[in-house]
Design a protein that fits this description.
The chain is an alpha+beta fold.
C-alpha cells in the first residue's frame, strides 16, 4: 500500500468511499445525501491537501489536512479520514494517522485537532489515543446517530512540534 497526494483525477475513485461513509450517517456530520459535487468541494477543494491510500492502482482510503482556524489558530491543523468497508481492519487508518502527522509538521503545523469524533466510533477513538491524541472535550448529545440518537462527540488534540 502506498499513500500519495490525490489529484483531481482521483475523485471518481474517492467518491464511492465518501458516499459509503457519509450515507451510513455514523461518523461524519455531513448530510447523508451529500451530492457528489458538494462532496468534491468538501474533500478535494477546501482542504490544504488530500491524500489517498492505493494498491495496484485501486484506492482504498483517503484523508485530508487543512488549517483548523485562521489567524492566531493557524498553527493547528485538522484532518478527516475515510476507509472503504472492504479495507477496514488492515491498518490503513493508522498508516494515514502517522502520515498525516508527518505531513502536518512538514507543512508547518504545531498541533492537530479532531473537532468532532463521534463517541460511538470506538475504533477511531482508540486509534487516536494510541497515536498520542488526548480527549480534551466532550460535547454532550452533539451528534444525532441514526440508530443511537443523540450521542456525544469528542474533541481530540495532539501537540506535534518537536
Amino acid at each position: 500500500m502506498q499513500i500519495r497526494e490525490a489529484g483531481n483525477e482521483d475523485w471518481d475513485a474517492i467518491w464511492p468511499i465518501f458516499q459509503e461513509v457519509v450515507r451510513a450517517g455514523e461518523t461524519y456530520a455531513y448530510q447523508r445525501d451529500t451530492s457528489k459535487n458538494e462532496a468534491e468541494n468538501l474533500w478535494m477543494s477546501l482542504p490544504r491537501k488530500t491524500f489517498v491510500v492505493e494498491q495496484g492502482g485501486e484506492i482504498f482510503a483517503t484523508y485530508y489536512i487543512k488549517t483548523n482556524q485562521p489567524g492566531p489558530g493557524s498553527h493547528v491543523c485538522n484532518c478527516g479520514f475515510m476507509v472503504s468497508s472492504q479495507a477496514r481492519g488492515k491498518g490503513l487508518a493508522s498508516a494515514m494517522c502517522k502520515h498525516s502527522q508527518e505531513t502536518a509538521i512538514i507543512l508547518g503545523y504545531k498541533a492537530m485537532q479532531f473537532n468532532f469524533v463521534v463517541s460511538s466510533n470506538d475504533v477511531a477513538v482508540a486509534l487516536w489515543h494510541k497515536h498520542g491524541f488526548e480527549t480534551v472535550a466532550r460535547l454532550p448529545g452533539a451528534f444525532n446517530h441514526p440508530e443511537r440518537g443523540f450521542i456525544d462527540a469528542l474533541v481530540m488534540y495532539k501537540w506535534l512540534s518537536r
